Amino acid sequence: MQTYPTNLDATGLSIAVVVARFNHLVSARLLEGCRSTFLELGGRAEDLHVAWVPGAFEIPQAARLLAESGRYNAVVTLGSVIRGGTPHFDYVCDGVTDGVREVMRETAVPVAFGVLTVNDIEQALDRAGGCEGNKGADVTRAAVEMAALLPALAKPPAVDAS
Ligand code: INI
Question: Could you give the CA distance from residue 135 to residue 132 in angstroms, rounded to a whole number?
C-alpha cells in the first residue's frame, strides 16, 4: 500500500478567511478559533488574511476571487445562518453551500466550509467555542490538511518504508 502524505503543519502557508458580519458575535468567535488554530499549527499571523462580507450569501463570491488570486494555499469560510420563521433561511443556506462547493470544485484551492446552519443562536454559540467546540478551529485544521494533500496528489505517493 502507498499513501499520499498528509499533515497538520501550517508552517509557510498563507490562508484567506472570508467571514460573514451577520450574527457578528458568532462570527467573531469562529474567527478566533480559526486564528488560534492556525497559529498553533505553525502559521504566522501575517499570513492569515481576513475579508469580512455582509452575510453568508456573499461568502462564495469573495471566496472565489481569493481562491483564484493565486496568493493562498487555502480559503476558510466562516459564518452562521440561523433559522427564522420564513424560507429565507433555506435560500441563504442553499446559496452559501452551493456557492462554496462550486469554488471548491472549480478551483484547485482547498476551501473549508465553516458556516453554521442552525435552529437558534444557542446552537450557534455552542459551536463557536461553546460546549460543542469551535467549528472555526475544526475547519482551519481541514484547510491546513487539504493544503498539504492537494499538491501531493500531482504525483504518485512515495513507497511506504514499512
Ligand atoms: N446572513 C447570514 O449570514 N446569516 C443569517 O442568518 C441571515 N439571515 O437570517 O437572513 C443572513 N442574511 C443576509 C444574507 O446573507 C445577505 O447578506 C443579504 O441577503 C444581502 O445579499
Answer: 9
pTM (2 d.p.): 0.96
Q: What is the pLDDT of residues 5-62, one digit of tens each?
A: 899 999 999 999 999 999 999 999 999 999 999 999 999 999 999 999 999 999 999 9
**Cβ neighbours, 10 Å, residue 52:** 15
| 64 CA → ligand 1 middle, Å | 18
User: Helix and strand tally (H, E) in the chain?
Assistant: 5, 6
Q: How far is CA 6 from CA 44, 144, 145, 148, 158, in A?
A: 20, 9, 6, 6, 12
Runs of H (alpha helix) within 78-134: 88-106, 121-126
**3-class secondary structure, 38:** helix
**Torsion sign across C-alpha atoms 53, 58, 64, 65:** negative
For the Cβ of 33 lying below 6 angstroms from any atom of ligand 1, the answer is no
Q: Which residue puts its alpha carbon closest to atom 6 of ligand 1?
A: 81
Rounded distance from Cα 58 to ligand 1 centre (Å): 8
